[in-house]
Amino acid sequence: MVTVDTGVQLEVLDWGGRGRPVLLLAGSGNTAHVFDDFAPRLTGLGRVLAVTRRGFGASSTPAAGYDVERLGEDVYQVLVSLDLPRAVLIGHSIAGQELSWLAVRHADRVGGLVYIDAGYRYALYRPGILENVQDLRTRLEALEAEIAKPPRPPAELSAAIQAVMGDALEEVQRDLEDLRTTPPFPGAPPAPAAADLRSVQAYQAWTRKTMGFAIPEAELRWQRDVRDDGGVGAQRAPSAAARAMGSAGAQRFTSIDVPALAIFASPHGLGPWAEQPGVDRTRVDDFLRFDTRMTERQARWFERRVPSARVVRIPKASHYAFLSHAEDVVREIGAFLRMLP
């Protein structure tokens, strides 16, 4: 337990290993134990640790401090308290915002960043439709003034139009297409049968068969009630911290100036359940096409705005790519770490 603020301690797990510190940050709703099966795969690359953010698991649950500024400062305090110089930070999902905050505020403590399906708008801001429409309006006014100038050769006019407009029109068209074609989620996996709930191991076997991966036991025990007889009970209520994080607002990170690897699950995999007979394949395919278009839009934005970053796609990986496609993720992280000074 590491003290990071007055009356606030965070749970930190340490799997050992030698060399460069590697610190894992979980997504919202998870604790550091979500990495129990994954982290040991990295110990050949450095000393591997993970932190449970405030409000979750065994960490303290204060009433406040769930904005990215404070959450990022919590991670910084862990780095300082444990003397972890130039650590590689690996974040899943919403932890991408903490990675980007640390890259901006404490770049000297960061040796590299790895975003595991975490490089979305909360980690690298891409303008939304309102901003894109406003930008387009401004550019159209400038375009009107440009066209009103004395006649000039077509090639010169074409270059002037491109300089004024950029890709503003295309961005708004993409926004409108996304909003007009958003499909419903194509259903849900079947509920586990009584036999699937008789033990933690049976439940994990069911999730592997249904979702394509299993949550480690210690993490599962934070997510669901486990009865005295070992059976798996109901899902626990979501932590109030998750709601607090959602309402705290996000910062707009527009650049990342430390070495970075961004892993996107693209196209995302819904899991084996979506391939079973009786599932509406049309709805599944429509959703996956839309999801891939949205994911790729952000992945390409990451490539354009952070040209020094390595951006990788893992096809049909779950959002929990480090569980569903652990070997692929470990391989990419290993290659990235070997490139670092």
Automatic annotation (TrEMBL):
This is Tropinesterase. Keywords: Hydrolase. It is an enzyme of class 3 (hydrolase). GO terms for molecular function: tropinesterase activity. Pfam families: Abhydrolase_6. It comes from Luteitalea pratensis. Residues 22-331 form the AB hydrolase-1 domain. It comes from the Bacteria. GO terms for cellular component: membrane. The keyword Cell inner membrane does not apply. Its EC number is 3.1.1.10. InterPro entries: AB_hydrolase_1, AB_hydrolase_fold, AB_hydrolase_sf.
